[in-house]
Write a structure and sequence with these properties.
mainly alpha, 14 helices
C-alpha cells in the first residue's frame, strides 16, 4: 500500500481529464485553444494570490499563539499543505502537513493543531454566511457585474461574517452546552458521540484562541479569510467570462460549495470523477456540452492540476523524509 496514494492520484487525474473530453468532445479542446495564454496566467495568478493571503492568515494565527513564522515559511506551508490536500482522499493530508511544517518552525504541536482548527473554523463561518447570501442573490436573479454591486457584495459578506464570528465568540459557552445536551439526549447520535465530542472540543479551543486575539486582529483574520475564498471562488466566474458565457454568480458560488463537499466525500484524491460529473450536471442548464467541458478543464487546471504541478516539488523539499510517513498515514497505516 506504500504507493497506493500515487496510484489513486494518477487515477483521479485520468478521470478528471477524460470525463470532460468524452462529455464535450474535441470541440471542447478547440474552445480552450481560443483562450489567450495571458488569461491562463490570470487564473494561476488568482490561485497564487489566494495562497499568499492564506499564508498571511496563518502567520497572524501563529503570532497570536506567541510563535513566529517568516513570510516565506508561511507560503511554503500553505502550498505544500494544499498539494497534500488534493493528493490524498478527502484532503486528509492537508491538516497533517500543516501541523508538521508549523511544528518544524518552532510551534508546539498542540499550538499548530490549534492554528489548523481556527483556520478551518473561520472557513466554516465564511461559508455559513456566504452561501445563504449567494442563494438569495440567485433567487432574486441579481447580477453583480457592476463595480458598485461587487463592492457592496464584498462589504456585505465581510460584515455578515464578522458579525457571526463575534456572536459566536460572545455565546460560545451557551452553544457548547446546548450541543452537549443534544448529544446526550439524541439516541441516533450515540455512535458518533466521540467524533462529535471531539469536534465540540475543537470548537471550544478555537474560541479561546480567537478571544485572545483582540478585535483588531480578529477583523484582519476574517478579512484574510474572505479575500482568500473570494479569489478561489472567483476562478470559475472568470473562466465562464473568458469563454464568453454568462451564469449567475450566486449559482456558481453555491455550485462550487457543493463540488467542494463532493470532492471531500469522493474516494479519489481531488475528488476525481465525482467533481467532474457533478460539474457537468450542475452547469448543463446554462451551457452546452462543449462549453461545459471547456470550462471544466480550465477550472480544474487552476484548482487541481496546478496544485499538483506547483505543490509537488515544494511539498517534497519542505517535508523531506517525513513525506514517506505522511504517505503511509494517508494509506491508512
Amino acid at each position: 500500500m506504500k504507493r497506493s496514494w500515487l496510484v489513486l492520484t494518477i487515477a483521479s487525474l485520468v478521470l478528471s481529464l477524460s470525463i470532460p473530453v468524452l462529455y464535450g468532445g474535441l470541440d471542447s479542446l478547440r474552445a480552450i485553444q481560443a483562450v489567450r495564454p495571458s488569461a491562463i496566467l490570470l487564473l494561476i495568478g488568482m490561485i497564487v494570490a489566494a495562497w499568499v493571503v492564506n499564508a498571511m492568515r496563518i502567520r497572524l494565527l501563529v503570532k497570536a499563539l506567541g510563535g513566529t513564522l517568516s513570510p516565506s515559511a508561511a507560503v511554503v506551508a500553505v502550498i505544500a499543505s494544499e498539494f497534500a490536500g488534493v493528493a490524498t482522499p478527502a484532503g486528509a493530508g492537508n491538516p497533517a502537513t500543516y501541523i508538521l511544517l508549523l511544528s518544524r518552525s518552532g510551534l508546539p504541536v498542540s499550538s499548530a493543531a490549534a492554528v489548523v482548527a481556527v483556520d478551518h473554523f473561520t472557513d466554516l463561518v465564511f461559508f455559513g454566511t456566504a452561501v445563504p447570501m449567494a442563494v438569495l442573490l440567485f433567487a432574486l436573479d441579481g447580477g453583480i457585474s457592476h463595480p458598485l454591486r461587487i463592492a457592496g457584495l464584498m462589504v456585505g459578506l465581510f460584515v455578515l461574517g464578522l458579525a457571526t464570528l463575534v456572536l459566536l465568540l460572545r455565546n460560545y459557552r451557551s452553544i457548547a452546552l446546548v450541543v452537549g445536551r443534544v448529544l446526550g439526549r439524541t439516541p441516533r447520535l450515540h455512535r458518533s458521540r466521540f467524533r462529535l465530542a471531539r469536534g465540540l472540543l475543537r470548537f471550544r479551543d478555537s474560541m479561546r484562541v480567537l478571544l485572545a486575539m483582540g478585535f483588531g486582529r480578529l477583523v484582519l483574520l476574517y478579512l484574510y479569510c474572505l479575500v482568500h475564498w473570494m479569489l478561489r471562488y472567483g476562478v470559475l466566474p472568470m473562466v465562464i467570462w473568458l469563454l464568453g458565457k454568462a451564469v449567475p454568480w450566486g449559482y456558481l458560488f453555491v455550485m462550487q460549495g457543493m463540488l467542494l463537499f463532493l470532492g471531500q466525500v469522493t474516494f479519489l484524491p481531488g475528488g476525481g470523477g465525482g467533481v467532474e460529473v457533478g460539474f457537468s450536471a450542475l452547469l448543463a442548464p446554462y451551457l452546452n456540452a462543449t462549453s461545459t467541458a471547456a470550462a471544466l478543464l480550465l477550472w480544474r487546471f487552476a484548482t487541481f492540476y496546478w496544485y499538483l504541478l506547483a505543490g509537488a516539488p515544494i511539498f517534497i523539499l519542505a517535508t523531506g523524509r517525513t513525506a514517506a510517513r505522511l504517505r503511509k498515514l494517508s494509506d491508512g497505516g
